[in-house]
Amino acid sequence: MDRKADPETQLMVDEAILDYLIYTAIKSLLKLLDRGQREEHNVHLPVQMVDAFVPVFRALHSNYNASAEIRFRLDLLQFTYVFVQHYHPFIASHRQEQRHTMSLERTLPMFLALSAAQNELQGSTITEIWMMLAAGYMAQSYMEQVIEYQNRRPGLLEDAFHWGYDADCRAEEASISKMFDTDESLTRLWESIKEEHIEALRPPNKTLLGDHLNSMAYGALSIVAFKDKVSEFLTGLLSAHTAPLLIQLEMGKVDGLSRKATAALKTRAGFVCETLDNL
Fold first, then answer.
1. What's the pLDDT tens digit per position in 92-124?
2. Rounded to an integer, what distance in angstroms lies between the CA atom of residue 258 and that of residue 206?
3. Which residues contact 175 (CB under 8 A, 6 or more apart)?
4. CA 160/CA 255 separation, integer angstroms
5. Within a 10 A sphere around the Cβ of 168, how many other Cβ atoms?
6. Of 85, 80, 89, 87, whose CA–CA distance to 27 is shortest?
7. Would you say the pTM of this structure is higher than 0.85?
8. pLDDT tens, 50-79?
9. What angle do CA 70, 270, 31 make, to 5 degrees?
10. CA 146 – CA 203 distance, rounded (Å)
11. What is d(CA 127, CA 168) in angstroms, rounded to the nearest whole number?
């Protein structure tokens, strides 16, 4: 007679598998952002495994409320995917649903929301290093609109840099606005950094806008350098949080446990590893 797993135990096991799959998918995608990494044919597989497992998980645990850590990793995976796809669109061809590459302008709010979520979880605030990265992201977004999409809409430059504290912002941007609600010195610094980037993007007299931005894209605001900085940022976000339990078991050391206790736990959790191998 078949014995069904205890629902609570089944949820713990499935949650551990879900967290593991999300983590490995992020790691796999980040490899593509590292200069010198070759586009391996199987880089899409971890993302496909998440795609396949999430619907099953939701069906089994319809009332599940994810922890803040798992919600953050899911958001991190979503942003990492669309950012990597922007520069490596071939990965979309391996998914069941074809998706158009998102512009940097559309991914910018995702980047800011992810940063806000990180600050909320860690109880931290924005730093000058992050401000430079965020302003660089806004600059790249603007340059792409002009160079790639031939967008010459009046006010485009100023709109790209409009982000900051806004008491009247839309509900979906509340967490981003809150992130910028900081002390006066940081607010002044943020406005100064934005203005520096805006001025750098304005062409000198008698220089065509397109020529100026193309020069910036391979000079002071290098696209390659930008990708490297975002890659470093995302890697830092992933490593700033405790690794999933199954990752720790793979590495042979679980936080709070001795190596002997970890080995014993790994043996007891062997059935989970077998499940992963069969996915």
1. 555 544 456 799 999 999 999 999 999 999 999
2. 68
3. 113, 116, 117, 120
4. 42
5. 5
6. 80
7. yes
8. 999 999 999 999 889 988 999 999 999 999
9. 50
10. 13
11. 24
